[in-house]
């Protein structure tokens, strides 16, 4: 039983989930500044593309990490539900630390590749499990905000990686790249020990018949003035949802992933996969992994200035990622996703035109577009695709559906990161055109297929998918929005208001 409760517990959960995603962001950003570093290219001349090295091998060394992440997600698909959320995250931290140590000690390309695969395995486990664990512990009206905080910390990790690379670029020995790679281990340790003292998901505990533990955690998650009746009511709602989902799943969650039935399991799984697919084919990792390379090769600026600009791009990206914290539960998921896709499409189109033109003034506009792209992405497609698989998937298949969505994220990240160096070398500015087309295609997909889940409990989200037609928005006829604590508080407030009105009426009658 955790010693924290209420807001303190919620912030502790968000902080440790954020620590795990800071590690994820740092991993994504750290290689970008090392690829063109002098010590790194001296140690690994085979992937020094400026001096005859192979661009395809460079893409493989960077992208093979995503293959590890893919198989880490598949591990959670197969065994994540059995071992639980906390144990999966702790195991991921251990495996990632081993991979980081292997990368930091690498003296050959095969050694580096093995280290990146192992680190990817750990990160795949973490990114499959942390959003689910976090979502299942958050209140309905704070879930979007909590996941946005988590992903903002993720981008702080990207920014930290850029500035670590820039700072270490002034070091002339092997520490220039070995220290940034080894630093990953620190964040893994923080996440590991943080998870040890925090609770398991009460929904996972109830699904595995550990109801008393779940009751204690639910009580700790509520405010101190909530009585047992409220917790009992929430337990009943979760148990009822689990029962309905198990009936719909017909006893097999693997088969349930592939069938619709009364609760649209396949449809909901595909929405989660589609969100991650859209996130990666937007072109974000074209920038995250290769920002200095783009600044040098596409825009034509010096190595040192490219690293500095990548660092400032990371700062702007981080501050942009803070915006959804305040608006995601006010405006909702759909509006932000549509805003992002439209903005990203425009940025890629302008980027293609300016890089093709090639003048100094066009180069300045291209740099602005790279910054603006990160702004649009951070507002609408950074946090939401990680949130939706946990929200859309019912508890009966949540671990496996989220793992599949995460696996799709990593396989498409691998595709983007693998082809980017070759694409920039071969077709140059045309690379940005096909990412612009992808973003344009996302607009109708989001508008016609993605339901709004703002402020709905995970159990209420089930109702959007139950019946003949998927509801894209919650209707008042379906009940009152919010979790049992909110609804109880609303009822109590209404009763007090009625009592006050009655007292005023009686007082006037006596007068």
Keywords:
MFS_dom, 511 residues, transport, Growth Hormone, Chain: A, General substrate transporter, 2 domains, MFS_sugar_transport-like, transmembrane, mainly alpha
Write a structural description.
With 511 residues, the chain is mainly alpha-helical. The protein folds into two domains: 6-465, MFS general substrate transporter like domains (Growth Hormone, Chain: A, Up-down Bundle), CATH 1.20.1250.20; 480-510. The chain has 23 helices and no strands. It has helices spanning 6-34, 38-43, 55-83, 85-104, 109-137, 143-168, 175-182, 184-196, 202-207, 211-221, 228-249, 253-256, 265-281, 284-299, 303-321, 323-331, 333-357, 360-380, 384-392, 398-426, 431-449, 458-465, 484-510. Helix 4 packs antiparallel against helix 8 (184-196) and helix 14 packs antiparallel against helix 15. The N and C termini lie far apart (56 Å).
Mean model confidence by pLDDT: 84
Output the structural class. mainly alpha
Count of the domains: 2
Number of strands: 0
* Structural Rg: 24 Å
Main sheet attributes: strand count, strand direction, barrel closure: none
Shape: globular
| CATH homologous superfamily grouping of the largest domain | MFS general substrate transporter like domains
Q: In percent, how much strand structure appears in the residues?
A: under 5%
Share of helix, binned: over 70%
**So how many helices?**
23
CATH architecture of the largest domain: Up-down Bundle
**And the CATH topology of the largest domain?**
Growth Hormone, Chain: A
The ordered string of helix (H) and strand (E) elements is HHHHHHHHHHHHHHHHHHHHHHH
GO cellular component, one term: membrane
Family: Belongs to the major facilitator superfamily. Sugar transporter (TC 2.A.1.1) family.
Transmembrane segments: 9-26, 62-81, 88-107, 113-134, 146-163, 175-198, 265-287, 307-329, 336-356, 362-389, 401-420, 432-450
Protein name: General substrate transporter
């Amino acid at each position: 039983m955790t010693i924290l409760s209420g807001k303190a517990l919620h912030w502790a959960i968000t902080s440790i989930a954020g620590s795990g995603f800071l590690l994820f962001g740092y991993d994504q950003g750290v290689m970008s500044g090392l690829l063109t570093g002098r010590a790194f290219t001296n140690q690994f001349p085979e992937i020094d593309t400026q001096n005859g090295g192979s661009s395809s091998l460079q893409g493989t060394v960077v992208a093979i990490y995503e293959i590890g992440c893919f198989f880490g997600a598949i591990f959670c698909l197969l065994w994540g539900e059995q071992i639980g959320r906390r144990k999966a995250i702790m195991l991921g931290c251990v495996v990632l630390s081993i991979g980081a140590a292997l990368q930091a000690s690498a003296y050959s390309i095969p050694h580096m590749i093995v280290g990146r695969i192992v680190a990817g395995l750990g990160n795949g486990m973490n990114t499959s499990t942390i959003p689910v664990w976090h979502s299942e512990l958050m209140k309905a009206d704070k879930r979007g905000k909590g996941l946005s905080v988590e992903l903002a910390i993720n981008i702080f990790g990207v920014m930290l990686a850029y500035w670590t690379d820039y700072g270490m670029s002034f070091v002339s020995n092997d520490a220039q790249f070995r220290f940034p790679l080894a630093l990953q281990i620190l964040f893994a340790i923080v996440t590991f020990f943080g998870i040890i003292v925090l609770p398991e998901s009460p929904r996972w505990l109830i699904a595995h018949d550990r109801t008393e533990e779940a009751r204690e955690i639910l009580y700790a998650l509520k405010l101190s003035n909530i009585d047992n009746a409220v917790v009992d009511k929430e337990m009943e709602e979760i148990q009822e949802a689990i029962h309905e989902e198990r009936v719909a799943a017909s006893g097999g969650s693997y088969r349930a992933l592939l069938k619709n039935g009364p609760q649209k399991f396949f449809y909901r799984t595909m929405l989660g996969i589609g969100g991650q697919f859209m996130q990666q084919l937007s072109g974000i990792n074209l920038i995250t992994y290769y920002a200095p390379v783009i600044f040098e090769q596409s825009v034509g600026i010096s190595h040192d200035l490219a690293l500095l600009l990548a660092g400032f791009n990371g700062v702007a990206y981080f501050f942009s990622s803070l915006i959804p914290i305040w608006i995601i539960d006010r405006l909702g998921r759909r509006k932000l996703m549509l805003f992002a896709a439209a903005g990203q499409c425009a940025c890629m189109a302008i980027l293609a035109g300016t890089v093709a033109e090639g003048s100094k003034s066009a180069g300045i506009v291209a740099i602005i577009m790279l910054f603006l792209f990160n702004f649009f992405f951070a507002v609408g497609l950074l946090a939401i695709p990680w949130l939706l698989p946990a929200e859309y998937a019912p508890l009966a298949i949540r671990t496996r559906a989220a793992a599949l969505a995460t696996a799709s994220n990593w396989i498409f990240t691998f595709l983007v990161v693998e082809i980017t160096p070759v694409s920039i070398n071969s077709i140059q500015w045309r690379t940005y055109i096909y990412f612009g087309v992808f973003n344009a295609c996302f607009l109708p997909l989001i508008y016609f297929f993605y339901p709004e889940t703002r402020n709905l409990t995970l159990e209420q989200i089930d109702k959007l998918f139950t019946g003949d037609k998927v509801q894209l928005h919650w209707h008042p006829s379906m009940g009152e929005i919010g979790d049992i604590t909110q609804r109880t508080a609303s009822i109590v407030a209404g009763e007090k208001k009625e009592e006050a009105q009655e007292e005023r009426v009686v007082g006037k009658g006596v007068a």
